[in-house]
Design brief:
Shape: elongated
């Protein structure tokens, strides 16, 4: 934020006492606009539920399985777009999502020698999580037609789990062991989340975008007709103007000796000599 201070000095002279002067300072404060919060986008994202496949981590005779992984409350802190024209038929849109937040719930269970246990687990993403997605839009010719096909050219997620908590029966000493294996579990869930997020985005590009572009093309098709010369040529009126002929004496006539009005694009041929003189 920044502020601007403007000082107004006004001297009020009293007719009975010229020594009474007053100075008024007025301060005008402005601040930079607040950053966008993407509230509409986040309302849509909050309705999305990501379901991940089960995963198992094994080490030193201990088997830990997490299942029924369900992630909700998806939202982003910032979205950045960068557009590039690759050719007359291809445009690329780079989409960067920063500050991805997500909460996941899952069931866990373990087996270690004769011990067994199960319970619920919770995970929350680190606010540093993000993703970079490349969208490719293709047209027959962008000069005359809108895009008709869209796809995800690349997807580079950076998902980081901030915390994982375990509740349930049979924890005891196993709770400490689960905490030791939290790193392995965290990496496993992060990998599954990244695959799922990119899979959803690729599906969005292949299905939803294509359907949207098809509907837009149908709506615009009636307007994609060649322009008339009067609309296509910005100098149409100038190029097609019919100038009347005028006699040197000032009367209109069809005589061969009549001359046209002055052409200011060739003004030197009319008045170059007498202007220089």
């Amino acid at each position: 934020a920044y502020s601007i201070t403007i000082l107004f000095h006004q001297n009020n002279h009293n007719q009975n006492n010229h020594n009474n002067d007053s100075t008024h300072n007025r301060h005008l404060q402005t601040s930079s606009p607040p950053p966008p919060n993407f509230s509409t986008l986040n309302r849509l994202l909050s309705e999305i539920t990501l379901r991940l496949p089960s995963a198992t981590v094994s080490s030193s005779g201990l088997d830990i399985t997490i299942s029924r992984i369900r992630c909700t409350d998806l939202n982003v802190r910032d979205v950045r777009l960068a557009h590039a024209v690759e050719s007359a038929t291809s445009h690329r849109l780079a989409l960067t999502l920063a500050g991805i937040r997500l909460q996941c719930q899952f069931r866990w269970e373990y087996e270690w020698t004769v011990f067994k246990g199960r319970g619920d687990g919770y995970a929350k993403l680190n606010p540093a999580s993000g993703a970079s997605v490349g969208l490719q839009f293709t047209s027959e010719n962008y000069d005359t037609h809108p895009p008709h096909d869209a796809g995800v050219s690349h997807c580079s997620p950076n998902i980081q789990i901030e915390t994982m908590d375990f509740d349930g029966d049979g924890l005891g000493i196993i709770g400490g062991i689960l905490n030791l294996f939290e790193g392995l579990l965290r990496d496993t869930v992060e990998d599954e989340l990244e695959r799922t997020v990119c899979g959803e985005l690729r599906g969005l590009g292949e299905d939803a975008f294509d359907d949207l572009l098809e509907r837009l093309s149908d709506e615009l098709e009636d307007y994609l007709v060649p322009l008339e010369d009067s609309l296509a040529d910005p100098l149409y009126l100038e190029n097609t103007i019919e100038l009347p002929m005028m006699m040197e004496g000032g009367e209109n006539d069809d005589d061969d000796e009549s001359v046209s009005y002055i052409n200011f694009q060739q003004f030197e041929s009319y008045a170059g000599e007498w202007i220089e003189s």
